[in-house]
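We include the pair:
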Amino acid sequence: MIEVPNSDQNQALSIFLSIHRFSQASELQGMREWLKSELSRLDKANRRDLEPAVFHQRQGACQVIEKLLELAETAGDKADQIRGNQRNKGAQP
């Protein structure tokens, strides 16, 4: 499964900001819609075709797409949290 690294806050901030731009940019709306339709298509295929190897490949693809879409929904808030944490650390004596 994919995860945003949390050991380097600057790297995490950069990733969340990029994902947030992806979630907001009007020129990328088609790509977001395509990812949602692919998730639906793969999910439907998994309910019809249960051949184990292909099922698991599609299942993995669904997990990655779903995680990307979830990250896109929360990336702006998470970036703001990291910025707030960085400001608070800088303000401490």
